[in-house]
Amino acid sequence: MKILPIILLLLSFNLNAQSVDFNNVFEDKTLRVDYIFAGNETHQYIYVDELSSLPTWAGRRSRLCELPLAGNGQIKMTNLKNGECIYKTSFSSLFQEWIATDEAKTTSKSFENVFLLPYPKVPVEIEITLLSSSRQVSSKLIHQVDPNDILIRENRSGEIVPYTYIEQNGTPQECIDVVILAEGYTKDDMEQFYTDAKKTAESIFYYEPFKSMKSKFNIIAVASPSLEKGVSIPGKDIWKQTAFGSHFDTFYSERYLTTSRIKAIHNTIKNIPYEHIIIIANTDNYGGGGIYNAYTLTAAHHKTFTPVLAHEFGHSFGGLGDEYYYDGDVMEGFYPLDIEPWEQNITTLVDFDSKWNDMLPNETFIHISSNDSLNKEIGIFEGGGYASKGVYRPSFDCRMRTNEYPEFCKVCQRSIKRLIDFYTQK
Questions:
Q1: pLDDT tens digits along 234-249
Q2: How many CA atoms does the CB half-sphere of 185 hold within 13 Å?
Q3: DSSP per-residue codes, 93-158
Q4: Band (426; pLDDT cuts 50, 70, 90)
Q5: Beta partners for residue 50, in sequence order
Q6: What pLDDT sits at residue 3?
Q7: What are the structural domains, with CATH classification, of the chain?
Q8: Can you say how many angstroms the Cα of residue 241 is from the centroid of all Cα atoms in its chain?
Q9: How far is CA 173 from the centre of its chain?
Q10: Residue 167: what are its φ and ψ, rounded to 5°?
Q11: Are the CB atoms for 423 and 175 separated by under 8 Å?
């Protein structure tokens, strides 16, 4: 199959978006919006839980109404007076993963979610939308926020959890601020946590393009104490009292390590400028999890910590999809084959022009079998996104496919670099 060269279309970026002057419409602080996502396989709902303010804004101050990636959900803030869009962001959520499970067919559940938005100077309308795997709106909520509302809580009181900067390359306005939180470390374990947090930062910056763009990041280690060491492993009847209640066996997958206590995470770091979250768990059990614009959570003491951390951060920061698959995988069918996935490193070829077509040689064939000689090439390799057929990845192997491969493929690297530029360019 020959793929004709085309001019790259940055589908996820709205290059014609109206420019918004941050200082005209926003304060230098954060509006934290807590939502509850609830429902089941057939019906999903969004509810406002609480509004609060944080003392500073660490997010972007330009390209405010552009989306770097579509995500599985989106938030849009508009000026209530004139209808002008003043901010957009996108995300994914554990709830949206859960509704694809068998459990969601027979029961309903609710999940906490927290989003950080710039604090408006004027009354605004906030529209939050959840999208299905077929990219249809599955739930939408529109609500209004008056910045002078006396019930918006000032969320900066209480005990400040100890923290230290591992990397500090600029102000929160200049850099991407990433916090590393301790999970399953008692107060007596904090020396070990700081050692592990330093290793966490080193592990991220081991890989390109993070390595060459290290100066764009601030990394903050937050010594959040737990009452007990380790984390919960329900499959082994092990339950621990930890800072964020994380556990393996999420959705009955042995290696899937997550937490649903999102408010506890954000309450812990409310006095620290932050944008992205990494949680390291004091365990040598294998596993982890990463959710786009939510968090990365991974085991700090397993021998595969470095590659697993990078893989999960590829999800939570980079919005990258999984490139692996197993024949007969229970997740097969997660991506409808008639819809182009929003993740930049997998494709169904429905809209391949929006992916890595421009990076291909003049003649490129779809590879339907593994071939070690093709390791370094950018191509079209069948198998990815949990499916052995119909979903394609850009290289034979990648950090988003196996723990053994030493780097992100060139397509993943370009996607991550674009995000870093998006968040930091003025």
A1: 999 999 999 999 999 9
A2: 27
A3: -HHHHHTTSGGGGT--EEEEEEEEEEEESS-EEEEEEEE-TTS-EEEEEEEEE-TT-TTSEETT-S
A4: confident
A5: 34
A6: 41
A7: 22-154 (2.60.40.3250), 163-319 (3.40.390.10)
A8: 26
A9: 20
A10: -130, 130
A11: no
